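// run 5 | inverse folding | seed 20
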């Protein structure tokens, strides 16, 4: 059964302990609220302010498991805190361990401070859990996929649009790398794992995957330098740095360009384009015309 009072009190306390800068939000002026505002938490949790506020006020329907997971991530809860939140909401806590998709607070704090850099948190199967705004501008929003398509390794062999984001000369290596990586995860997680499911699907759907899979390659590591092809700014050569969270098998991937290079200039342009698209999306959501948000030419 849901413990409405306990749930509301726990959420209020966790919200009050967080500051805007802890979660990558601007502080603003004349701030009187202790900790985060409800509307700020709602943004972090991808839900309406009214919905979140009703939970804190002990009203409304029982939140779904999906909503509770979103709140736990938005409030940067630890695994223990996440499990406690699920129980207060009347749900069983999700499975722990290396298959968990709950990003650790430490990794989130780092990601929140990379607002001027393309970065993402991914699972061992290449499923994107969180991106920075510039990460979305670089590769598109890869958090919205569902099912096997969440994995970039699966999309690589089934979705031509995924391949168009990478330089053609790198395609043969990337095919070998994704197949080898999937084989290693499958051996590690076993025949009942998602990795095994993805491999079975790809064997049925992709002749190219069948060809590289038959080579039984493992240990093919990603190149440090990535060659992207962006539909608006063209070719970019970016260095990828990786930080591993061994407890949950998540990786934080950060993409940077050499200062003064053409790719560095293109990243700066991409930041402007990405910000403009976000503004247009927000305007559309509020019923405005997109051109109303574009900079006016003199």
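// decoded
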């Amino acid at each position: 059964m849901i413990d409405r009072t306990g749930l509301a009190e726990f959420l209020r306390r966790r919200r009050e302990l967080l500051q805007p800068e802890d979660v990558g939000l601007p502080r603003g002026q004349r701030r009187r609220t202790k900790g985060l505002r409800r509307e700020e938490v709602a943004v972090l949790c991808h839900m309406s302010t009214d919905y979140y506020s009703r939970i804190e006020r002990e009203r409304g329907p029982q939140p779904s498991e999906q909503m509770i997971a979103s709140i736990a991530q938005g409030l940067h809860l630890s695994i223990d805190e996440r499990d406690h939140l699920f129980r207060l909401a009347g749900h069983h806590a999700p499975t722990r361990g290396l298959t968990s998709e709950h990003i650790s607070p430490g990794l989130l704090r780092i990601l929140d401070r990379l607002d001027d850099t393309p970065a993402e948190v991914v699972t061992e199967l290449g499923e994107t859990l969180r991106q920075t705004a510039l990460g979305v501008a670089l590769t598109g929003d890869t958090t919205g996929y569902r099912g096997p398509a969440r994995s970039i390794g699966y999309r690589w062999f089934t979705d031509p649009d995924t391949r168009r984001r990478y330089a053609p000369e790198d395609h043969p290596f990337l095919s070998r790398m994704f197949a080898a990586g999937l084989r290693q995860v499958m051996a590690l997680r076993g025949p009942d794992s998602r990795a095994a499911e993805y491999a079975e699907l790809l064997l049925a759907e992709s002749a190219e995957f069948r060809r590289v899979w038959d080579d039984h390659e493992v240990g093919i590591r990603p190149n440090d330098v990535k060659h992207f092809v962006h539909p608006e700014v063209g070719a970019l050569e970016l260095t990828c740095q990786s930080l591993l969270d061994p407890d949950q098998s998540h990786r934080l991937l950060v993409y940077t360009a050499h200062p003064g290079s053409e790719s560095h200039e293109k990243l700066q342009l991409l930041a402007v384009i990405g910000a403009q698209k976000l503004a247009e999306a927000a305007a559309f959501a509020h019923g405005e015309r997109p051109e109303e948000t574009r900079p006016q030419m003199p």
